[in-house]
Write a structure and sequence with these properties.
Radius of gyration: 34 Å
Helix content: 40-55%
Number of domains: 2
Strand content: 15-25%
Number of helices: 17
Distance between the termini: 27 Å
Length: 453
């Protein structure tokens, strides 16, 4: 029996019991789909880890400790007089020590720390205006020499900052909006369609107006408008940098002094009253955990990208185990289902088997036919499982379910070899499941088989 005859015979036999074949193949579909998603998640995590570990992100430890402003003697602000007023009220921050110059020097002496740098966060509200567009974002004051140390690179322009200049994050322009369009879209159905928002503007070389808001000594709102020229746009680096705006440290310190002038008895001295932003660079990835533990012992419970990656890894490991169990159970059940289907087929086709052997078919021919049929059922289920698995992996890449758990959307990756391996593996499962029925069919005695009604 040549290959063409075998193929036609197998297709004809499967066509006769197509309902039973489809139901049996569904078990293989579930198992192979779980296998595809499982391997895709693992490969995606591996690529994500490689991307993260290729830069300085996993060895960088940055946090924002509390700082203090001295209230003017005899003045009162929110019921507090002549005392240090925390600029943040989080319970975690309240328990953190102030990072003054002495603490900064202590950080530099920790084992595994390569260097320590400080910067000035804007401690208040600021709105950004660009023509008719409005927006906001993180504002940090940094020395230009710190930016390359943090792994920040310009996508356009330069990182050399001067007075009254700024570098914007990669996503800063995209979060600017037109208040008129937003008001129109939120005011219900209109007689005419709402205009489509314009694409994000190119801010390089443009001048932004930054509006700071504070309270005077009488509790009235006052504003300060500052014109800032954009000299550079950062390459993508992560949310805290992509949505922010970086200016000179002395500029942001002046704005903080202005915003808190009503309660500050004197200009803020970060070296004494505490730095609002601290970043430590570990020597390598192995020492990052050691530095984190040392900081925690000093009262700074930091949360780093390395720890975040560990949480992602733990999540993926749990998900992989869960999918692996489902896939294993499904494939075992599918194997029993294939075996049961083929055993029923042997019973129903006993006279047919006897006739084939009576006209010259050998035991090997009979075994080959039944193994080909069971293998075909496995491959059919494998094809369906690969399709379902690729669909689920694609949905994960779109980011819907992934964003719900705080993971990046590019968290799955399907290698080119995976679909072919999965279909081949499903076919092997079918062959193994069909071994017993094929053996039973081959052992039938032609005379006895022909007498079966």
């Amino acid at each position: 029996m040549n290959g063409r005859d075998l193929l036609l015979l197998v297709l004809g036999n499967l066509q006769r019991m197509k309902g039973r074949v489809v139901m049996t193949a569904l078990g293989v579909v579930i198992g192979t789909a779980a296998l595809v998603v499982l391997v895709s998640l693992g490969a995606g995590l591996e690529r994500l880890s490689a991307d993260l570990t290729s830069g300085a992100a996993l060895t960088e430890i940055s946090f924002n400790p509390p700082v203090h402003f001295k209230v003017v003697s005899g003045a009162e602000l929110d019921g507090m007089a002549s005392q240090d007023v925390p600029s943040r009220c989080s319970s975690v921050l309240d328990q953190m020590p102030v990072v003054d110059q002495a603490m900064r020097d202590q950080f530099a002496e920790l084992p595994g720390v390569e260097w320590v740098a400080v910067y000035e966060n804007l401690m208040g509200t600021a709105d950004v205006e660009y023509g008719a567009l409005r927006g906001s974002g993180f504002i940090r004051g940094m020395e230009p020499s710190l930016l390359p140390q943090l792994g920040l690179e310009p996508a356009a322009g330069s990182l050399e900052l001067g007075r009254g200049e700024a570098v914007v994050g990669a996503g800063f322009a995209s979060q600017l909006y037109d208040p008129a369009l937003r008001a129109a879209s939120s005011s219900g159905p209109q007689a005419r369609p709402t205009p489509t928002p314009a694409p994000p503007p190119d801010l390089l070389g443009e001048t932004l107006t930054v509006r700071f808001t504070s309270l005077d000594t009488e509790g009235n709102h006052v504003q300060l408008r500052v014109r800032v020229k954009v000299v550079g746009v950062l390459a993508p680096r992560g949310y805290l940098y992509d949505q922010g705006l970086i200016m000179l440290e002395r500029d942001v310190l002046e704005y903080n002094n202005w915003m808190h002038a009503a309660r500050a008895g004197q200009p803020r001295d970060p070296a004494r009253q505490g730095y609002s932003g601290v970043v430590l660079q570990a020597v390598d990835l192995r020492t990052t955990g050691m530095v984190e533990e040392a900081l925690t012992e000093l009262g700074f419970p930091v949360y780093t990208e390395r720890r975040q990656l560990e949480e992602w890894s733990a999540f993926f490991t749990g998900l992989q185990i869960f999918l692996g169990i489902i896939g294993a159970i499904s494939l075992v059940v599918a194997a029993f289902g294939i075996s049961n289907t083929m055993l029923m087929s042997v019973t129903e086709r006993t006279r047919e088997i006897g006739l084939m052997k009576a006209i010259g078919a050998s035991n090997r021919d009979v075994v080959t036919i039944f193994l080909a049929e069971s293998g075909a059922i496995g491959v059919l289920g494998g094809v369906g499982g690969v399709a379902v698995g690729l669909l689920l992996s694609g949905l994960l890449r779109l980011g819907g379910p992934v964003r719900l758990v705080g993971l990046p959307s590019a968290s799955t990756y399907t290698p080119l070899w995976l679909p072919f391996f999965t279909m081949g593996f499903a076919g092997i499962v079918g062959l193994i499941a069909g071994a017993v029925p094929a053996s039973r069919a081959a052992r039938l005695v032609p005379i006895v088989a022909l007498k079966v009604e």
